[in-house]
Amino acid sequence: MTIPNKPADTSAQLADLIRNRWSPRIFDPTHLLSAEQIQSLGEAARWAPSSSNQQPWHVVFLTQGSKLFQEISEKGLTGFNQAWAPSCSLYAVMLARQTEKGKARDQAGTYFDLGLASMQMVMQAEAMGLKSHFMGGIVPLEIEKTLNVKDHWVVCVIAIGKQASLEAASEDLIARETAERTRLPSESVYSVDKPLS
Ligand SMILES: Cc1cc2nc3c(=O)[nH]c(=O)nc-3n(C[C@H](O)[C@H](O)[C@H](O)COP(=O)(O)O)c2cc1C
């Protein structure tokens, strides 16, 4: 049974949780999360920092096997996401609260805050032995309709679950699951004590 680990090939020391997080696509569809586990994920999002402590987000969790999980699997995902995501245990539908002013700067700030809540939730999932995979390849209008979303932007869906082995997966899926993880070079991501050129 092969369950890949893909720790980041880093150029400096990193906390294990960060080093070992990655985004698999092969999940065990029989694995269900307990109500307590889901609550822990919700609390992780709830306790994220945000600008002026506005907490401009809402997370809708959909559990494997539920009617709404099924509907989002069928109509709310695009492309290859439709092939793998329905095997996960939980969808976290990440919503950003629309601001009254609706100015670009407000929207950017709201999305930034939602990103922090999302990542904090993903790291909590990692600490619980689960894996997560963000999906921007979604159909926001369908998700809005299915979940009766009002006054929020549907930003992304996060598939969360227990990693499963490669053996039963399609060739296409195995190829993606075992592909090397890459990043831009360090110098294009951060610099120290010098202005940008
Ligand atoms: C906002 C966002 C949207 C993403 N959308 C998708 C997606 O629709 N489908 C997919 O397979 N991966 C998606 N990804 C996953 C990225 O491709 C992945 O995080 C990136 O390649 C880095 O790989 P790693 O998470 O394993 O380090 C998304 C990631 C983020 C943060």
Automatic annotation (TrEMBL):
Q: State what protein this is by name.
A: Unannotated protein
Source species: freshwater metagenome
Q: Name one GO molecular function term.
A: oxidoreductase activity
| Family assignment from sequence similarity | Belongs to the nitroreductase family.
What the entry lists under SUPFAM superfamilies is as follows: FMN-dependent nitroreductase-like
In Pfam terms, one family for this protein is Nitroreductase
Q: Name the InterPro entries for this protein.
A: Nitroreductase, Nitroreductase-like
Instruction: Name all Nitroreductase domain ranges.
Output: 18-77, 87-162
Q: Which UniProt keywords apply?
A: Oxidoreductase
